[in-house]
Each structure stands twice: as C-alpha cells, then as structure tokens.
Amino acid sequence: MKSTTGTIFAIKRYAIHDGPNIRTTVFFKGCPLRCTWCHNPEGLESSIEVVTLSGKCIGCGECITACPEKALSFTSEGISRDKTRCRRCQACVRCCPALAHEATGWETDVPTLMHELLKDLPFYEQSGGGVTFSGGEPLAQPGFLMEMLQACGKHDIHRAVDTSGFAPVETLMQIAAHTDLFLFDLKHMDSTAHQRFTGEPNEQILLNLSALANLGKPIRIRFPLVPGINADEENIRATGAFVSSLNGIDAIDVLAYQGAAKNKYARLGKKTAKEAAPPGTAEKTRAIEILEEYGLKVRLGG
What we know:
By secondary structure, the protein is α/β, with parallel strands linked by helices.
C-alpha cells in the first residue's frame, strides 16, 4: 500500500522545549493562520517555495541554463526569479555550486520520516522523551499527521502535537486518539483582536480546547506574550480565567516574544513580522503574577 506523503520544512533533534525531556521536533509546512509575530514564516505556505540568496551567488549562470521554465535571469542586482514562470522544480537548487538557491521544505512519506525518527529512539527511551509534530500547523495535514502518530505509537514513542487548535473539531478528535500530549497555543481571548492579528477568529479554537480538556487529554497551554498585541492586563486576565476553568488544566507556559525572525522574512522575500519590542522583565513578571492569581502554575519560556 502506498504511504501517505506530507510536506515538512525542518527536523530538529535533541529539542528540550517542545515537550517533556529529549525530543525530535518535526515541522510541518502550511498554516491557516497568519500571526503577525510568526517566527517560522517558512512554514506558512503549504507548498515548497524556492528562494535565492543573492549574497551567495557567484555569477556562474548554471541555474539559468538548468531552469526548464527560463524563469531565471541576470540583472544589475544579481539573479532575478520570475515567479509567474517558476514551477518550483528545484533544478536551480540542485545545480548551484554556491548554494545560492534554497527550497523551504521537502516532501516525504511515512516510512522515510520514521527511518529518521527511529535514529533517535535510544534518546527517547533513556530520557522519557519522544516526537513532537509542530509547524506551521500539523493539523493542516491531518492524513499525514495521523499516519505518523500511528507509526510512532507502534514503537511506543511518546507523541506530542504543537497546534494553534484551528481545525475542524472532527479532525482534532481523530488526532487526539493517537496523541499523548497537546501543546496548545492560546493567542488572544478577544475574537475580533484574534482575527486582526492572526487572520481568523478564535471561537473554533476555544471550542476545540474545551473539547480536548473534557476528553481528559494531557494539554500544556502556551501563551505567546507579545507587547502591543496580547500583553495587556485585560487579555491576560481573560486568559487566566478561561484556562483555569478548563477541566484538568492547572498550568500555562508564557512564551516571551523575541523578534528573532527578521532574517527569515528577508530570505523569503516576505514582509517583516510585526515590529514589536520583546517584553521587558516587568511585563513578564506582571503577566506571571496575574496568571498565578487564577491558581495556575506558570512557566516562563521564549
């Protein structure tokens, strides 16, 4: 039987911030949200993008010759790509001796990806770690995610899914049956503000989070603290009240915005993420104090 394929953009080994103990994090491409502070812009598009790093180009012209669509040409500023002609075949990536062309991901199947993950099996067994599926948004590739979760389960590998929670509830419930831990991002409690800063309202997200909690699934809430977006006291209190009302959840991670993705946006030719200063010590301390007022155990990250 032919295996389901999926598109990913990174595999991060020895991860210690994406779930308990030593883990391997697999980053899926494609996300239905457009958070203005996103730190993984290479994961936004579901398709593989091809970008040119002009600073690496040595002017050999190999890519121009290799391109079957004649989408590349020399200009006064270096190699130019006609995006209307480019079919993302990656001929330029394969032939460039200076590595001036890059693809933002690759397609893989379940056996191939499992082969990579099983290389780290001794670390999972010794530390109690496992595999975390992140993104992008892993729920945007539900078939591939499901098969990967099932394959990991056959090897007794702990499985975590890092998600925004924006998906049909039916999809989430199917995935939940094969997931040991959810890392659930809670970005903003006000639906209008949520839509302004992420492109989508939050009603489905909150319903999905409540449904997971009612199932008794292990969940770790992640709250990205971004000044000018969700770091005001009103939103933090609304977040604390909601999380503390959920069945079986008594903890939350505050992830302080760092603004470290500017170079990624430049490489991809995308508009820079939201220009926001990282929260200061006083802002982080106050957020923690407010959330603790609601009986939550707070862990600071970022």
